[in-house]
């Protein structure tokens, strides 16, 4: 017999765990399926805007217990080394996914949450319910399934999502370091074929994560050679790497990153976080978007389960509208900036414009960040 639950969440990353805590707090039965054991590292910029702090505190998941770094300013530089800096209007904090995901996971477990270490192999919607099958051949039935499995999965192939069938030129690399780096700063440094973000996280560690064009990357024999031959062309990046010591055995990578249009709802599955849309690292706010999308999805689901939204179709339409209202412009800004930064001469012109008109950079930052989240009643 299938295991029954109200909500089944596929993926126990930041978005999935946030939704699990929100629904659990409302008394809804939730089963979360995550393929990897906790804790584990993920390729991520590990900067979060303060816009989500009130919501995390409402979930009784205040990240301050993890001793995150405080981030209040941003620096941007071009390949030539020219740079500009600005205050972050709302500010933010730096914390590793290794610590934050595990923290939320422990919160969910402590309140009786169910986490299954397994991989979902299929999801079928029929007769107003979902049938979910995992690789261990366990079956689940649920009133609603939430997709929170990250950037890409074999599930995307089965759902015939367009982006999964298209090759992407992007590769991301991430590692933690110890060394010299300015406090309260998130830096974004452009290099030929990509851009690199750096900021402090907990315990004075430095997170360095960059997005590279795979065609330029593959001509080098390894990551170290690529960094020294390409990233070091930007003097700021050269200084950061030369003053830092790698804390991982080796950097971790992920390829085939697609930043194209995705569906917020497909086959009645509600998608949240990177599963719904992958924002360019240039916007530096993917973690806040993941948390925010989990909150929007959870609130609408609760209204649907209480009968305040009359049917599934209405709920799905409202979710798509809310998603677009909160995130569509951010995604557009990310795509636009990425297209500009792929062309060195345009990047230099953009920086020159920001130097002459200093208000431009704070304006761009505002366009990639949201307002402080309203705490649910």
UniProtKB/TrEMBL annotation:
<feature type="domain" description="FAD-binding">
    <location>
        <begin position="5"/>
        <end position="308"/>
    </location>
</feature>
<dbReference type="GO" id="GO:0071949">
    <property type="term" value="F:FAD binding"/>
</dbReference>
<dbReference type="Pfam" id="PF01494">
    <property type="entry name" value="FAD_binding_3"/>
</dbReference>
<dbReference type="InterPro" id="IPR036188">
    <property type="entry name" value="FAD/NAD-bd_sf"/>
</dbReference>
<dbReference type="InterPro" id="IPR002938">
    <property type="entry name" value="FAD-bd"/>
</dbReference>
<dbReference type="InterPro" id="IPR050407">
    <property type="entry name" value="Geranylgeranyl_reductase"/>
</dbReference>
<protein>
    <submittedName>
        <fullName>Flavin-dependent dehydrogenase</fullName>
    </submittedName>
</protein>
């Amino acid at each position: 017999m299938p295991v029954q639950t109200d909500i089944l969440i596929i993926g126990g990353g930041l978005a999935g765990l946030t939704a699990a805590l929100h629904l659990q707090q409302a008394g809804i039965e939730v089963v979360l399926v995550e393929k990897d054991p906790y804790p584990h590292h993920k390729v991520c910029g590990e900067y979060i805007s303060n816009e989500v702090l009130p919501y995390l505190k409402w979930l009784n998941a205040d990240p301050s217990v993890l001793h995150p770094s405080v981030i209040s300013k941003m620096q941007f530089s071009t390949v030539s080394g020219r740079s500009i800096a600005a205050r972050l209007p709302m500010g933010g904090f730096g914390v590793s996914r290794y610590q934050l995901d595990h923290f939320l996971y422990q919160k969910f477990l402590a309140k009786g949450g169910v986490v299954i270490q397994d991989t979902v192999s299929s999801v079928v919607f029929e007769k107003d319910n979902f049938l979910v099958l995992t690789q261990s051949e366990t079956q689940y039935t649920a009133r609603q399934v939430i997709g929170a499995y990250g950037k890409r999965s074999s599930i995307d192939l089965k759902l015939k999502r367009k982006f999964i069938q298209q090759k992407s030129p992007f590769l991301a690399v991430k590692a933690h370091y110890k060394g010299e780096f300015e406090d309260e700063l998130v830096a974004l440094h452009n290099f030929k074929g990509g851009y690199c973000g750096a900021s402090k996280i907990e315990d004075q560690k430095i997170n360095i994560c960059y997005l590279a064009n795979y065609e330029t990357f593959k001509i080098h024999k390894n990551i170290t050679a690529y960094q020294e031959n390409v990233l070091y062309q930007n003097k700021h990046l050269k200084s950061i790497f030369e003053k830092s010591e790698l804390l991982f055995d080796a950097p971790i990578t992920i390829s085939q990153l697609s930043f194209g249009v995705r569906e917020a709802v497909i086959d009645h599955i509600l998608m949240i976080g990177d599963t719904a849309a992958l924002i360019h690292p240039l916007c530096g706010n993917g973690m806040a978007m993941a948390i925010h999308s989990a909150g929007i999805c959870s609130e609408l689901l609760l209204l649907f389960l209480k009968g305040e939204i009359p049917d599934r179709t209405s709920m799905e339409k409202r979710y798509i509208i809310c998603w677009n209202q909160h995130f569509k412009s951010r995604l557009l800004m990310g795509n636009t900036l990425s297209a500009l930064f792929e062309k060195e001469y345009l990047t230099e012109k953009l920086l020159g414009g920001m130097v002459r008109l200093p208000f431009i950079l704070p304006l761009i930052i505002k366009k990639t960040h949201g307002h402080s989240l309203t705490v649910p009643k």
